[in-house]
Amino acid sequence: xxxxxxxxxxxxxxxxxxxxxxxxxxxxxxxxxxxxxxxxxxxxxxxxxxxxxxxxxxxxxxxxxxxxxxxxxxxxxxxxxxxxxxxxxxxxxxxxxxxxxxxxxxxxxxxxxxxxxxxxxxxxxxxxxxxxxxxxxxxxxxxxxxxxxxxxxxxxxxxxxxxxxxxxxxxxxxxxxxxxxxxxxxxx
Length: 188
Prior knowledge:
With 188 residues, the protein is mostly helical. The chain has helices spanning 8-21, 36-45, 55-63, 72-83, 87-99, 105-115, 119-122, 139-165, 172-179, and strands spanning 29-32, 50-53. Helix 3 (55-63) runs antiparallel to helix 4 (72-83).
């Protein structure tokens, strides 16, 4: 995951920066959460890569839409539905979930409109026989670095702001960073 709260332009800048650094590297699979800015940037820079959604993030977002403690059976079925690798089980579980009279209709509609249409991005059914680095649980390792990266960026921006208050001339990339205009790679 690049950053959950980043602006689309900033994310696109950094994804483009990665591509500029290694233009011959085309990842077959890119793992992210469902952050739309990330997904748009990744699809623009790597149009031939497959974008998968992290299983942990999928469950976390779904769980935030209802009180799981009040609907234990439904929650267990949803978790099984998300992690099953069997296509028959996937559709059987969906039928059980969608037909459950005790389930809030709002959660059924939510799953039907927000998750079912993009199931190829999060379901494990099409992810069988993949290498470990293509699995949906490995991006949590990358997320640990995001905190450090964000802190470093915040410190850099603070330093640039202090420099500008002291009337120290800003280099081109520093001015671009502050203005949000990224015309070139900051290290060039």
